[in-house]
Amino acid sequence: MSGRAPYGLVAVTCAVIMAVLGFLVSGEGLAGPDVLALKWVERTFGGDLGLLRLLVLPTEAYVLIPVALLAATLCLLGRRRLEAALTVTGPLVAIAANTWVLKPLFDRWKNTYLAYPSGHTVALVAVLTVLVLLARPGVATAVISIVGAVVLGAVTIGMIGLGYHYLTDVAGGTLFAVAAVCGTWALLTWAARRRAPMPSDG
I need a surface site. Which of 14, 56, 105, 137 has the fewest CB within 10 A? Predict the structure, then answer.
């Protein structure tokens, strides 16, 4: 995983887009895309609650925590301590900031709970983003990215169909998760470089 990649720029860009979308959808906001998505999901998957619950399964803590712990363990076995730190801090930062800062800030409600950005999505995409960053560039990165996109699409259908979230909640959650994990990685690599001993001239 290259420390030279512009992770900070990716983080800032995703965070800005998420914030703009959040202010647009706070209150009534962009109802059009959400209504169209809901109608399509209801028409295509409407009565199959068992399938919809299955599609949401990858967002559950009992799925995501073992995946993150396995990734951290493999990093530690490979003496990749900085990457191991990312597997823990990246998702935790994303979930905590979303729960305690962003949801109250944007104040978008779905039934009786704050919905934007989607916490289910933040947790899932944060772990997926960590896996993409940990993978070696090339085939492994491409495979994880493609599988992750398919899983996210399925989860989106499940959450809309079950009434957990709007489409725009998922979009905001995806953007913020990427921003939080990339921002965390940028800070970790910056701190590691700061701690690294300077080469001696003598």
Answer: 137
